[in-house]
## 1
Amino acid sequence: MSQKLGEKFFPLGVSGLGGGEARRLAELDQAYCWHPFTPMQEWCQPENEPLILHSASGAVVRDVYGREYLDGNSSIWTNLHGHGRREIVEAVCEQARRMAHVSFLGAGHDKASLLAEKLTGLLPGRPLPRVFFSDDGSTSIEVALKMAAQFWQQNGKPERTLFAVFDGAYHGDTAGASSLGGVALFHARFAAWHFPVLRVRSVEELEASPEWQEGKVAAVVIEPLIQGVNRMALWPQGMLRELRRVCDEADVFLILDEVLTGFGRTGEMFACQHEGVVPDILCLAKGLTGGVTPLAATLTTERIFEGFWGAWHEGRTLFYGHSFTAHAIGCAAALANLAIFEKENTLETVREKAALLARLLADLKSGCPWVGAVRQLGLLAGIDLAHPSGAPLPPLERAGFRVCASARRHGLLTRNISDTIVLIPPYCTTREQLEAMVGAIRRAVGEVLGGREI
Ligand SMILES: *Cc1c(COP(=O)(O)O)cnc(C)c1O
């Protein structure tokens, strides 16, 4: 599975640490670590061989034993240009040497100034000229919620306290972001601690709801065009534009969660650009640093920013922040990440590779009776496993989980969401690597379901 490393990427590290050391690292993990979204009893069984990674370059990652895999998951949807991308790594090292971190409470720094200017300039005409930095996708949402809630409190509409959200939404796991969530598996257990939201399935349902008509809604929050965690469900074309129109009519804020879709994933810099929509608040995280460090940004309009204007004793300040807000190393990485877009016309690359991926997935679907619907937008894809009749498979069979485990043995790392296999390759993935990724899924599906009775 060699790839041309070229000059762009730092090469992979040592080809394995030796069996003894590799095993010891796996044992230490099983003894002391607690993994997110992971049934730990299963993980800690001696017969489970946990994946312990050690180096990465381009679309390839290597584990402590020296085994190589293609990263079909872009490190949980964060990586853009590939691992070990030289300019980003060098920017991180330079920044770490000069000044790793400084509190953004009461001070700015060079990289944040430059990055804020860059980010606000990514939408033509700079309609969102203010950036509030935070740490990850969830906190970028928390910021947006507090901005919208406080804005109405202190600008004449205190009755606007409700957030409208969509069925199947995923906006993160902190308590506020989780309150918005509409995926039962992740959110239902904590429902007793969530704040109330107006949950709807469509724009029509939103407009028809009494809360909307009574003017209680502060903002609508949505993942534009595609709900990643909801098995890559696509919104109907034009839906976002319609939602923007409806929000404008009622003067309700539109908050777009582009944590996943931002930075070229869908073939445009931001997904909202497919429909010519500009939000009032834009939440960005995952790809912001090219997947190298955590960093998030919440962009907003001059109007919302001015809603917080006032003498200090008027109490119009946004009291929200984190220790590592606007982390200097993250800002340096983000600047290097964005510079690559300009230098290499990355959006064009994404579009070309998305077209290739579409062909490969169409072949997969037509050649494989256990592959049902395939949904794709840019370099985001969800591949449903289903009975050849189209019926869903019994959840207890864990087909999605088993297909991903099998794909790992065929050199592909990715994750399932129930019986949907997610494929989100880094932008640097070559044609051969993309073919190998889809090939690994084809073999894995054959292995897990091929012998199953129809
Ligand atoms: C991942 C994700 C989040 C949460 O981001 P974290 O960095 O995991 O907190 C929010 N919204 C969407 C659409 C996401 O994909």
## 2
Amino acid sequence: MRLETLLVHSGGETDEGTGAVAPPLHLSTTFEHGPAGEMPRGYQYARTENPTQDRLETALAAVEGGERGFFFASGMAAGAAVLQTLPRGSHVLFPDDAYHGFQELIHDFLPRWDCSATAVDFSDLDAVQGALRPETRLLWAETPSNPLLKITDLAAVAEIARGAGALMLVDSTFAPPVIQRPLELGTDIVLHSATKYFGGHSDVVGGALVLRRRKPLEEVLTSVRTTLGAVASPFNAWLVLRGLRSLACRVERHCSNALAIAEALAEHPAVERVHYPGLAGHPGHLVARRQMRAYGGMLSLRIRGGPSQSGREAALAVAGRLKLFVNATSLGGVESLVEHRASIEGAESTTPQNLLRLSIGLEHPDDLIADFRQALEGA
Ligand SMILES: *Cc1c(COP(=O)(O)O)cnc(C)c1O
């Protein structure tokens, strides 16, 4: 079956007991044993597994084309679980512009777990190869990246990982399976913040991992989740499963809107630069064209400063004049958002001060372009 069909139907069997077409939401934390203590339906206690989470995990594996899906309480919990499977002494390569939360996780926690990491530019394959060490166990990529929308060549990095006997993970949050299928390109693990496009309505926090093969991580990841307890509530699993049903339609519209806005604003005199992999001038455009079906709903803009205003001031002023775009963090919801990333990342941020990150929603593109024009021209 094609992806659009899998998204609608996976994990969606009609409920046997009632005939309910929408999946039932099971909040029970505990499940009845048989007379000899056996578990006749496979369930015992909801932290280990539960029927709503099982439905979602079946769907996650199907839509990514992997053997095993895992749902976690957040994208961060999903990523932390992978790092917690590493043996002591392991070394990890991760992108120099990785999602801010993962940079903190790697910096603050990996040393406590007796592991080390090196940050590299994953768009530079020689740099990736050169940073490998005998103890490198994991290559952690993110594409498109946040907030500069840099592109990593997934097939090439997967080959480097294989050659080094390491696993490769991709944080594909910016590119849901409708437009990017990392497991088909040789990646071992795909990670999503389900809080973003999977949920799609800015109303649920969750994280997903899908393994291309059950081995070697299925067992140890199950144990990390059960024992450390980063499980999601069944209601959150239910909301994410519901989000998957409309993912293909939503993502198509997010992408076509973002491309229209990128093209319209790239020409604007108040815009210094647009970072969007769908534009021919983007340094990762050719790789993106090869490995993505469309270029996603995220883009960043650099606003031009002037004689009386720094780029940072100009960017903040534009964000303040937007009427339709809500000034808020996060992404992937139906509504368009704008955010000054350097402010949210704090003092150590290396993000350009004149950069605004946009999450393009499902509004009509002309309304979004008109809103941006009035905000740029109010300057
Ligand atoms: C939001 C995000 C995360 C973290 O996910 P949470 O669900 O907020 O824990 C990880 N990676 C990327 C690229 C993100 O945008």
